[in-house]
Amino acid sequence: MAGFDDLASERSKAQFDVEEMKVIWAGSRHTLEVSDRISRLVANDPVFRKDTRTMLSRKDLFKNTLRKAAHAWKRIIELRLSEEEAAELRFYVDEPAFMDLHWGMFIPTIKGQGTEEQQQKWLPLAYKMKIIGCYAQTELGHGSNVQGLETTATFDPQTDEFIIHSPTLTSSKWWPGGLGKVSTHAVVYGRLIIDSKDYGVNGFIVQLRSLDDHLPLPGITIGDIGMKFGSGAYNTMDNGVLRFDHVRIPRDQMLMRVSQVTREGKLVQSNVPWQLVYGTMVYVRQKIVSDASCALSRAVCIATRYSAVRRQFGLQSNGIETQVIDYKTQQSRLFPLLASAYAFRFVGEWLKWLYMDVNQRLQASDFSTLPEAHACTAGLKSLTTSATADGIEECRKLCGGHGYLCSSGLPELFAVYIPACTYEGDNIVLLLQVARFLIKTVSQLGSGKEPVGTTVYMGRVEQLMQCHCAVQKGFLELSADLVQAAVAHCQLIVVSKFIEKLQQDIPGKGVKGQLEALCNIYALFILHKHLGDFLSTGCITPKQASLANAQLRSLYSQVRPNAIALVDAFNYTDHYLSSVLGRYDGNVYPKLYEEAWKDPLNDSVVPDGYQEYIQPILKQQLRNARL
Ligand SMILES: CCCCC/C=C\C/C=C\C/C=C\C/C=C\C/C=C\CCCCC(=O)SCCNC(=O)CCNC(=O)[C@H](O)C(C)(C)COP(=O)(O)OP(=O)(O)OC[C@H]1O[C@@H](n2cnc3c(N)ncnc32)[C@H](O)[C@@H]1OP(=O)(O)O
Ligand SMILES: Cc1cc2nc3c(=O)[nH]c(=O)nc-3n(C[C@H](O)[C@H](O)[C@H](O)COP(=O)(O)OP(=O)(O)OC[C@H]3O[C@@H](n4cnc5c(N)ncnc54)[C@H](O)[C@@H]3O)c2cc1C
């Protein structure tokens, strides 16, 4: 039968050791073992089913998410899962929920911005989930412009407290995940006011709801901001609205690693840079880059398997049509995405290392690499999420009409993924940060300060000094071009990190060869996409451009027999993929047919509303016909 045979035969053609590639993708043999074990644990647990998610009402969907989160927590405790295993469990449960913000932002903020005493007080409560926290920064009126936030935290020396207040409608907190219905606490960002003087934005731990009956505490108005894009998708999350009416908190609930307010109301700065108030965003952006490769590889896995099963036109001598994966147009759309998934995986690995390195340095009061870490996390978050969002949509198109069905898994994946281009920093705003960093680096070239890290190449480009002079005349005027320069800088990082990966010891028959092909596809595809820029700047000649394109076509042919094995190496369970088109066994058509009958519309042969709305029309037509 089509599908079973197709994928089995594809697998037999693979020219490399898939099991070793799984290790490379996972990062280590240990990580592969953990991820394999936990993904199966989730797939085999009926509480974690997700096949009806797109058909549930918001209330049922949300309650079901709470049920899953509670069950996940129970399993974590019962099985005594490590932090790594628990994070894998959250990943494979595959449902955005308040837990993400509690573990992913609330706890890291206290760790990064709290003093030793504050950590000792709050972290045990948070780790045991005796309190549940979220990250309340964005307001109705300001998200990107953090320094424009309006919430105030005014010190009252009489009582040794801060008074948290929302002075305007636009100062209402708006968007924080987990805030709407679940969180008992939040890290709230607001303007520190002492003696009528504004000291800018700082973080404060604020209790929002009673730990007894979950009701909002006095002075607090709180709720969910409403349905978001798509069915299922991000609607499992209670993104919230929050207003304060002169809510009092003890002074020691201001996060005081960066600056402290004394009992007398004096502001004391510590030796750490004030930008550490933005530190959680660096951490989460780094996480988002790692997650981009997961979302893209998932879409690519579905589209690749289906492209091998789907046949259209080109009747062959044996009477069967051509697999659509054999069309060069399909390959030229699909294989660069396959290569991007691997490229993002490796740059994500590197970014994780960079983040750990900067953290260790911060502990030792070395702040020198913070600007680069900010630029890299901001830029790569922007590049990888934009490419992944576009890539998922391209995979939907690669699957033709069936890709538009929810049972393909692609519509929900797209809907849940696209806000990544906005949250944790709008992608254009983040690229402008990279552009500023690049301009600053260029401006220091003449002063004898050697560029380091990801900007080391700048020391070799003489024309950059002239660029700097031009940009000095108008950053805003040139910002659209500067954003392109920032993207180019980030692409260079992605390609360099892929090349560095290839320089490591890579065991397994044929594995290195496949990765080399993917790395070359990624680099040449970027060159192809921006051919105009490369030609107009004289970086390559027309002859080189045409050679590069010929090389790209030949690389597609090289990857073609290995395509299915390259997506098998992601080691995704059918539960995680949740796609009829991407099934491991390729049994697409019978399952698509079966799936259709599960739709609630098919519960009855004659639909509800027939007698009310259809029958009268039909009867009317009958009368008109008689007339
Ligand atoms: C059930 C199982 C349970 C177990 C679970 C286990 C585990 C779960 C684990 C994990 C989950 C993990 C992670 C979660 C992953 C995903 C999370 C999911 C969803 C995400 C939710 C999204 C949340 C949010 O969106 S929070 C809000 C984010 N907001 C933003 O990003 C705002 C964007 N704006 C800004 O960042 C800034 O305002 C700005 C644009 C940078 C402008 O800053 P500003 O100060 O106004 O101006 P300026 O440009 O002059 O900058 C000044 C100066 O500072 C430097 N700078 C700026 N930012 C930073 C930074 N972040 N770090 C360091 N330095 C920074 C800048 O370069 C300037 O420097 P200089 O003066 O030039 O030297
Ligand atoms: C699903 C989701 C979850 C979220 N979760 C949280 C959360 O848990 N906690 C939290 O605090 N926040 C959260 N947010 C908020 C999120 O961080 C902000 O929406 C994001 O930072 C973008 O800010 P904004 O909405 O103000 O966009 P805006 O800044 O208003 O952007 C609008 C447009 O203006 C452009 N623009 C803005 N500034 C400039 C500039 N200087 N130059 C050029 N163009 C510019 C942008 O590119 C964009 O096109 C979440 C958002 C979403 C969608």
UniProtKB/TrEMBL annotation:
GO molecular function: acyl-CoA oxidase activity; FAD binding; fatty acid binding
This protein's name: Acyl-coenzyme A oxidase
Domain Acyl-CoA oxidase C-terminal, residue spans: 463-619
GO cellular component terms, A-Z: peroxisome
Listed Pfam families: ACOX, ACOX_C_alpha1, Acyl-CoA_ox_N
Alphabetical GO biological process terms: fatty acid beta-oxidation using acyl-CoA oxidase; lipid homeostasis; long-chain fatty acid metabolic process
Protein's cellular compartments: Peroxisome
Reported cofactor(s): FAD
Principal location class: other
Residue ranges occupied by any Acyl-coenzyme A oxidase N-terminal domain in the UniProt entry: 17-132
All residue ranges annotated as the Acyl-CoA oxidase C-alpha1 domain in the record: 278-439
Record family assignment: Belongs to the acyl-CoA oxidase family.
Keywords recorded for this protein, A-Z: FAD, Fatty acid metabolism, Flavoprotein, Lipid metabolism, Oxidoreductase, Peroxisome
Keyword Oxidoreductase: yes
InterPro entries in alphabetical order: ACOX_C_alpha1, Acyl-CoA_ox_N, Acyl-CoA_oxidase, Acyl-CoA_oxidase_C
Entry keyword Flavoprotein: yes
